[in-house]
Predict the 3D structure of the following.
Amino acid sequence: MEQKTPVTVAAGDGIGPEIMDATLRILDAAGARLDIEKIDIGERVYLSGNTAGIAPEAWDSLRRTKVFLKAPITTPQGGGFKSLNVTVRKTLGLFANVRPCVSYHPFVETKHPVMDLVIVRENEEDLYAGIEHRQTREVYQCLKLITRPGCEKIVRYAFEYARLNNRKKVTCFTKDNIMKMTDGLFHKVFDEIAAEYPQIKNEHWIVDIGAAKLADTPEKFDVVVMPNLYGDILSDVAAQITGSVGLAGSANIGEHVAMFEAIHGSAPDIAGHNIANPSGLLHGAVMMLVHIGQPDIAQIVHNAWLRTIEDGVHTADIFKEGLSRELAGTDAFGDAVIERLGQRPETLNTAEYPHEGEKISLAYARSVDSSQIRKATVGVDVFLEWTGGSPDALGKRLESANGGGVKLQMITNRGVKVYPGGMPETFCTDHWRCRFMTDREGASMETAEIVGLLERIDGLGLESIKTENLCTFDGEPGYSLGQGQ
């Protein structure tokens, strides 16, 4: 008898218990070799006073099994409750979110009948680092963090996924025409790693026109890799235009643990009515079976589901008169899939998963030895809260803070240069970036020089709220110019 694989399972909230029950019944009937550990997460845990929504013993299970099949949960509004999905992804290092988006024409209504793409989304950084501050009475900030290791891991995963799944092209979406350093790094790393896979086509799109193309002609794409925020938005767009966001499953892959789920929410308004579609969670479970080395079962389950859809057995969310033959509730749909185990679709493409073969290596190999990069501090941006007049008035006042090896170079407001030589039409808030540079050619600015500058600014009666050191790396500036500079 083959050994069972330990799997942690959470039934979640809302429709979660219903769709999880249907999913597990299908997996069991198909012969999935699973040793299930059940944990409690979500709303009940939140409301018990745990703001993370997950108890310590649940973490123990996840770290022990390293595989998590999770139904949707409800995060209570207010009260400072953190997103459990984000907590699990970041705590366990689940850096890759993988979402296959496939249309099932003509059995599920869609405007894109030949769509079959996979979105690989970076899962840990970008704006989702969640580092936000209110800096002045008028201005808030959110820090966008993009790292070279994060870029290298997700881009390499996308190319490895394409290689092992016989995909022909990987496309990168960024906005590096505006965010030249953060998104620019993602694009740069994409080009570097793409060169290692000459057998796979590669291309880059600016995310706005790329998103338009994805929504209009998704059949032009195969595997699409992108930073966190763009991937979050466009993976939902892609899933929806297949015909229903409720059909899509999702994998969250890390070096040590993997989580599998539906991409939709807990839908408490229909909970308990036996009408929810379990397909998204079932597709997540299929991805889980492949991940744990049971592709034979994954293939059986997936093909039975395809045959069920072909036979017109549909839940209410995708039921259409003239397309569908039978309106099925959650339990009945699960029964219909079980009845078709061992069958294959006749019109839709058959699901094929290799029974043996190479797996994606998740070991991260650093491509750049950062310890050898020469770093020098050549200036400092001092951010002020100030409502005392015009940019020229502030600039003239700050000029008197020059000295001690530093000199005011410019002032920006919301990124736009307003001093010297600003335009009177530029709208300004109470948040000013004041850039001081060292006046000693080739010298690195000392901490004492920055402290002395801040003391002089304070002596002028100006309130500094933040500083950012301006550094060069191997002589290249590690900071952006102001708009209009």
Notes: The chain has a mean pLDDT of 93. The first strand starts at residue 5 and ends at 10.
